[in-house]
Amino acid sequence: MHDTIWFESNRRPAVFIASSEFEQAATAQAEALGLPEVRRIIVPHPIQDATDDEMRAKADAIVDAVVAALAR
Amino acid sequence: MPNLPAFTLTDTAGHRRRFPSGRLTLLAFMKADCPTCVTSLPLVDALAAAVPAPADVWIIAQDADGGRALAAHGGGNRAALDDSALAVSYAFGVEIVPTVMLIDGDGTVRRSFEGFDKSDWQALTADLAALAHGPLPSIDWTTYPDRRPGCGSRTLDPALADRLAAEAEGSPLRARRIEIAAHDDPFEFLFDQGLTDGLPVVPPTPERVLRMLAATRRDAQDVVAIVPPNLAPATVEKVAINAVMAGCKPEYLPVVLAAVEAVCTDEFNIHGVLATTYFPTPVLIVNGPIRDRIGMNYRGNVLGQGNRANATIGRAVQLVIRNVGGGRPGEVDRATIGHPGKFTCCFAEWEERSPWDPLHVERGFARDDSVVTVYAGGAPTGFIDQLSRDGRSLATSYGRTLAAVTHPNLCFHGEIVVVVPPEHVDTFARDGWTKRRIRERILEVTTRPAAAWRGDAECAEGIPAAFADNLPPDMPLAKFMSAEAITIVVAGGEAGKFGAFLQPWLSGPMGSVMVSRKIDTTGR
């Protein structure tokens, strides 16, 4: 989140990607750092035991949303 | 106005009086229960009548009731001002009442004296007559004693001194003051504000924070560290506030300051320690002379409850991370299970009970240095070896126990802290076993061929298959990256052949690295 906000504050669009279990942490941190509206994409949890194919599927599912968020 | 503090006080008639006024001013600091003040009052009245206008003659009354009592005497162009809050008496540095000051309109102190000495009053009377270009006021000096000692100013009352220092102009405190209603319970208020770890905290009143700050020479506004995750600056004052809340004695503050500094380094990586779903939290290990000076425990129940220094120093660091850095469970603290050491985990090494160099000496400090070392540790796990009679057998026990750390099929661990109790120390020492030899034996015992670390159909967990596939199946892999990664600390009670290790986390740039900081014990 620090990195995402650093990019944004340097006028470079950035999007933060996290699994659903970390949405609350992202919200708290974004608010604490003064950019609550930071662009974010939330993917279904879990990640830890996902196979490579499952990870690719998660990525494929959000790629359009990532582009749309960055183009906002 | 050189050197004299400005003030506004209310007189007994409810009028606000401001100093400096640019006029000649006679100030008499008094309290009603001081016999010497009462003796002096008629002289104040007599002089008030003789002072050339425009001028102010003010009794600065240190007690509200007394102010009324003092005001009841005489009248004319003098007033009794309510300084029952004592801020003005404190600002003027009054130590004895009465203290009498004649101050010119430009702020020059023309005359000042304490207690009662007839010659002082006669000289003051002559000053006023000269200023008025008139005759001396008619005073029957024979009715006055030559000398009378004054009384102690109320500002010196030990029960009030800390509060006055905290509230005074020039107080080192800059933190936002929170006034709570008289009917509010401060303990409940602090819970409601989200400032606790779930246990009650000591309300950080200005007096308590000032007493805490007295334990360090550092300026209250010095920044000790930038505290993740919010990257908020923690000043000495902010650390002191949290130390008060944790229940620390002031003499613990230097340890807390050094620990906060250590925890907030990139190497320790408190942001990662908080954000991981695994178990770690700052574990504080204290070495050097300060251990005994502040009464830390390194003997029985060393990782348990019951010792104020151990309990509150660790807790203060946790409260700084929470209240300054914003590292709270459910927010950036993502621990799945956590452990009770997240309230506090701080202990000292029993250096004198060990034949080996203590931790801080191993880490490059002098034996006489006081040092705090922070380790990102999980909960302690105990193990039993009550039968080994020699060093090799006992070190083998340590190795076999540590083989299961985090999971029997996981290796390449970095740092781990192992607590060796006195009875085990004796077994090792009898055989001349050094720390190095113990560490190497642990590595030897926990080394297995690459194939043995892999998950299988029975249990999937293990080293990653992609990694294992590139290794010869019989290649030896050790549980730990190196012998140096195994930190041995001597602590615990004299009875009990039980060791413990504190669960490790990731080490190195992806995780946390132990950090030691020398504790500034020079005090004030």
> What sort of overall outline of chain B do the alpha carbons produce when their principal axes are compared?
elongated
Number of helices of chain B: 17
Number of strands of chain A: 2
Write down how many β-strands of chain B occur, each being a DSSP E stretch of 2 or more residues: 23
User: What does the largest sheet of chain B look like?
Assistant: 5 strands, mixed
Structural class of chain B: alpha+beta
Rounded average pLDDT of chain A? 91
Beta-sheet strand percentage of chain A?
A: 5-15%
Instruction: Choose one word for the global shape of chain A.
Output: globular
Quaternary state reads: heterodimer
- Output the strand order for the largest sheet of chain B: 5-4-3-7-8
Q: Helical amount among residues of chain B, as a percent range?
A: 25-40%
Major sheet attributes of chain A: 2 strands, parallel
Biggest sheet, spatial arrangement of strands of chain A: 1-2
Low-confidence stretches of chain A: none
Instruction: Give me the secondary-structure category of chain A.
Output: mainly alpha
From the N-terminal CA to the C-terminal CA of chain B, the straight-line distance is 32 Å
Mean of residue pLDDT values of chain B = 92
The Cα radius of gyration of chain A reads 13 Å
Uncertain parts of chain B: none
**Cα radius of gyration of chain B in angstroms:** 33 Å
Describe the structure.
The complex is a heterodimer of chains A (72) and B (524). Chain A has 72 residues and is mainly α. Helix content of chain A is 53%, strand content 11%. Chain A has helices spanning 2-9, 23-32, 52-71, and strands at 16-19, 40-43. Chain A has a two-stranded parallel sheet with strand order 1-2. The mean pLDDT of chain A is 91. In chain B, strands 5-4-3-7-8 form a five-stranded mixed beta sheet. A four-stranded mixed beta sheet of chain B has the order 15-14-16-23. A four-stranded mixed beta sheet of chain B has the order 17-22-18-21. Chain B is built from 17 helices and 23 strands. The model of chain B has no long low-confidence stretch (mean pLDDT 92). The chains are: A mainly alpha (72), B alpha+beta (524). Chains A and B meet through α2 of A and loops of B.
